């Protein structure tokens, strides 16, 4: 069917260029804010997401950026399929960036994550899930 004069007819969805998407069809980009800049990251570039109140801070190889989306629960829901695991009420960790797992006295777990600068605690109730997700 032809489009009315002056209107463009869209190509069928199958003929349109595909956006970069993950298996669930969601885009793998996350927006970080630093000053007046908005920086686009592929979710694989994010090492740790840390909640401070409602704000979420992204730790990346390029530094620390505030996430454009507030609420760590929203980030958790959106990027769980991309290798992120909630290890603590305040932390999501990219499992592909974990380099060491250690046990403190009392059996509590801690993760050493590459290029992060400090240890990420694992809550007791999430410890079993985290070790299973890491294949330990």
From TrEMBL:
<keyword id="KW-0238">DNA-binding</keyword>
<protein>
    <submittedName>
        <fullName>LytTR family DNA-binding domain-containing protein</fullName>
    </submittedName>
</protein>
<dbReference type="InterPro" id="IPR007492">
    <property type="entry name" value="LytTR_DNA-bd_dom"/>
</dbReference>
<dbReference type="InterPro" id="IPR046947">
    <property type="entry name" value="LytR-like"/>
</dbReference>
<dbReference type="Pfam" id="PF04397">
    <property type="entry name" value="LytTR"/>
</dbReference>
<dbReference type="GO" id="GO:0003677">
    <property type="term" value="F:DNA binding"/>
</dbReference>
<feature type="region of interest" description="Disordered">
    <location>
        <begin position="1"/>
        <end position="24"/>
    </location>
</feature>
<feature type="domain" description="HTH LytTR-type">
    <location>
        <begin position="34"/>
        <end position="136"/>
    </location>
</feature>
